[in-house]
Amino acid sequence: MKLNISCFVFLFLCVLTVNAQELSTADAMKTINQIKLDTCYVYADCTSTRSAEDAYKNAEALLYLEIQNWLESQKQTGVTGAIVPTNDECLRIQTTRGKMFRAFVYVDKNKIIPYRKTEKTMVVERETVEPVLGKTEKTGKRKKEKAEQVVETQIEPIYMPTAFEQQMLQVKKAGEIEAFVKSDGIEKFGKYKDRPQTGVYYLLVYNPAGEVPACLKFDEGAITNVSTGNVDTFDNYKGCGAYWFIVK
Question: How far apart are CA 4 and CA 103, in angstroms?
Answer without folding.
Answer: 26
